[in-house]
Amino acid sequence: MLKKTLLALTFAGLAFAASAQQPGIKRTPLQKIDFPEGYTTVTAAAEVPPGGAAGRHTHPGVETGYVLEGEADLLIEGQPDKHLKAGDSYVIPAGVVHDAKTHGDKPLKIIGIYIFDKTKPLATPAP
């Protein structure tokens, strides 16, 4: 029962992250495991429509991902903007404000992996 509750809370965190960001973003949780000790690892597919943005937010752990389709500008606070295209990967440090804005006329499709402190929400909107 506790495991199902934690899974529901994690996926609710994904839903919160999506709702706190721009409308039209589709997130699909693929897997959730409690590993390493004290952390949760979530793998998710995400799609941002053309002209869309993820919205400024943070995660309490590292995010790493791979671009399946489309292009985007990844804006990570304190770093130069990065232009990503299909086949590129990225890493966003824990707690750093970031955003992704699609580029071109195709949606951005990614696989994201989030490794975060299991006592904290997956994402928090940033001003």
TrEMBL record:
InterPro entries (UniProt xref): Cupin_2 (IPR013096), RmlC-like_jellyroll (IPR014710), RmlC_Cupin_sf (IPR011051)
A Pfam family that the UniProt record links to this protein: Cupin_2
Keywords: Signal
Annotated signal sequence range: 1-20
Top-rank taxon, per record: Bacteria
Gene3D superfamilies: Jelly Rolls
Sequence ranges assigned to domain Cupin type-2 in this UniProt record: 47-113
Record protein name field: Cupin
